[in-house]
TrEMBL record:
<dbReference type="GO" id="GO:0016829">
    <property type="term" value="F:lyase activity"/>
</dbReference>
<keyword id="KW-0456">Lyase</keyword>
<dbReference type="Pfam" id="PF12697">
    <property type="entry name" value="Abhydrolase_6"/>
</dbReference>
<protein>
    <recommendedName>
        <fullName>AB hydrolase-1 domain-containing protein</fullName>
    </recommendedName>
</protein>
<dbReference type="InterPro" id="IPR000639">
    <property type="entry name" value="Epox_hydrolase-like"/>
</dbReference>
<dbReference type="InterPro" id="IPR000073">
    <property type="entry name" value="AB_hydrolase_1"/>
</dbReference>
<feature type="domain" description="AB hydrolase-1">
    <location>
        <begin position="7"/>
        <end position="243"/>
    </location>
</feature>
<dbReference type="InterPro" id="IPR029058">
    <property type="entry name" value="AB_hydrolase_fold"/>
</dbReference>
Length: 255
């Protein structure tokens, strides 16, 4: 996707904390446990990184947990972020009971990773209903092999617990403060996140109508459903997503 977009934009991919080659440098147990890797703190960290990279505005593109971070960033910092693309993302859980339950689930998952290791964790993780269509994809085995190469399970387990959607403040009510364009993407087969995407667009537009905003609702929130794909849209059917991203970028740069 980066290669496909690079002729029309400068594309930078960042390994989120606990992923890829990013490392948490304070290794002693006391300091390590005090480091917070919540969605808000990671959003703040990425903003600092972006400010070091460029003086201009950027469009943030995030998938799943990355989409939650991207939404947090565009709601936090409007002068630096000109738009956001949210792929299979969510504004969080509305109710406290749901957040507590999910926090406990993700804490248990993090402990499972530390106790039983990455191989067992990956097998359990991708057995979930959310990955049904991905498991049938030709690239699935290659993707899993790549995941198995990740060596730092301590950092990954911390991110699983700290960045849990249960620990994130619900951003549903904050959608009314959205001032920059957002493209919301969901896979056709991902029923849960397709419904979330529809609700996000619907509520954003309702807020705009209540405020009698002169801007077109379509300018602020756009949604696409990518055919023949589930949660991992960018893996399962990347070409329609690339086309939608190009179109979104062109629209952002129009006077």
């Amino acid at each position: 996707m980066m290669k496909a977009l690079s002729p029309s934009a400068r594309v930078i991919a960042v390994d989120l904390p606990g992923h890829g080659e990013s490392q948490i440098l304070q290794r002693d147990d006391e300091n390590f446990n005090q480091i917070s890797l919540t969605i808000q703190s990671v959003a703040d960290l990425l903003l600092k990184l972006i400010c070091n990279i460029t003086d201009g505005e950027v469009v943030v593109v995030g998938y799943s947990m990355g989409a939650r971070i991207a939404l947090q960033m565009i709601l936090n910092e409007n002068h630096k972020i000109s738009g956001a693309v949210l792929i299979s993302g969510s504004p969080g859980l509305r109710h406290e009971a749901s957040r507590r339950r999910r926090t406990a689930i993700d804490k248990s998952r993090a402990q499972f990773l530390l106790t039983y290791g990455l191989e067992c964790f990956i097998k359990t993780w991708y057995s979930g209903k959310m990955w049904t269509s991905l498991r049938e994809h030709p690239q699935f085995d290659s993707l899993v092999r790549t995941r198995r190469k990740h060596s730092n399970i301590t950092d990954l387990s911390k991110v699983l617990a700290d960045s849990s959607i249960g620990r994130q403040k619900s951003l549903w009510e904050d959608l009314k403060h959205l001032e920059k364009p957002v493209l919301i993407v969901a896979g056709e087969k991902d029923v849960k996140f397709k419904e979330i995407a529809e609700r996000m667009c619907s509520e954003t537009r309702e807020y705009g109508e209540r405020e009698a905003d002169c801007r077109s609702n379509q300018e602020l929130c756009e949604m696409i459903v990518v055919p023949e794909s589930g949660h991992a849209v960018h893996v399962e059917n990347p070409l329609p997503l690339v086309r939608a991203l190009r179109k979104f970028l062109v629209r952002l740069h129009q006077p």
